[in-house]
TrEMBL record:
<feature type="transmembrane region" description="Helical">
    <location>
        <begin position="218"/>
        <end position="239"/>
    </location>
</feature>
<keyword id="KW-0472">Membrane</keyword>
<keyword id="KW-1133">Transmembrane helix</keyword>
<keyword id="KW-1003">Cell membrane</keyword>
<keyword id="KW-0812">Transmembrane</keyword>
<feature type="transmembrane region" description="Helical">
    <location>
        <begin position="122"/>
        <end position="141"/>
    </location>
</feature>
<dbReference type="Pfam" id="PF00528">
    <property type="entry name" value="BPD_transp_1"/>
</dbReference>
<feature type="transmembrane region" description="Helical">
    <location>
        <begin position="61"/>
        <end position="80"/>
    </location>
</feature>
<feature type="transmembrane region" description="Helical">
    <location>
        <begin position="92"/>
        <end position="116"/>
    </location>
</feature>
<feature type="domain" description="ABC transmembrane type-1">
    <location>
        <begin position="56"/>
        <end position="236"/>
    </location>
</feature>
<keyword id="KW-0813">Transport</keyword>
<protein>
    <submittedName>
        <fullName>Hydroxymethylpyrimidine transport system permease protein</fullName>
    </submittedName>
</protein>
<feature type="transmembrane region" description="Helical">
    <location>
        <begin position="178"/>
        <end position="198"/>
    </location>
</feature>
<dbReference type="InterPro" id="IPR035906">
    <property type="entry name" value="MetI-like_sf"/>
</dbReference>
<dbReference type="InterPro" id="IPR000515">
    <property type="entry name" value="MetI-like"/>
</dbReference>
<comment type="similarity">
    <text>Belongs to the binding-protein-dependent transport system permease family.</text>
</comment>
Amino acid sequence: MTFLKKYGLSILLVLLLLVVWEIGARLYGKPFILPSPLQIVDRLWELRSVLFVGHLPSTSLIMLIGLLLSLVFGVGLSIWMHKSDIVRKAFFPLLIASQTIPIIALAPIFVLWFGYSLWSKIVVTVLITFFPITVNTFDGLRSADIHLKETLQAMGATKRQIFYKVELPSALPHFYSGLKVAVTLSVIGAAIGEWLGADKGLGYFSRRMMTQFDGAGVFAPIVLLSLTGIMLFLLVAWLEKITMKWRNIK
């Protein structure tokens, strides 16, 4: 009952959109351009062995490695910028500048540098997921209550104790917000990298189906990518809930 109360309207809206899409696609009558949802589901089932065994693991590996690298370097850089004004002034403008260049323009350069190996796709994924993790964590560290920090300093607390007792808990909600954005963007990064240069993966398979004018085949891996992103988002939300019980997240 709680689930329906919370997500009932969203589910109803999605079902309504699917019905409209189904009717519109049937009336249009050109499945190689606009397949219906049922046709996409049928094609996804037909291609299940190819997609789930041959391509989904490759895309998932790119996403996970890219997210892991973004977490390590993003959190590390945010803490470093928080501790040093010189580092903040040096790196923060570069972070902003990195997001002004279209990823689609940089991806071919990474293919040129790294070839069609896994790393060209990982670099694209890192570039697109690094920013939200770093900026949100940095903002969280800076949002710590200054009065509480001054009180602890007056009581003789060290900088390390203040960091772990005040600044880190203050940064956690912001960190999880950035991570939620990053996990969904990792799907986009992996797909873009595979679309421009790969021999396997969901993005590559979608591009291959496009050359064969298989509309349902183009949408099938896209649906799988979307479901993967949703699952990763829900996983992060679950981790947030169990690690931040003190925040009383509902």
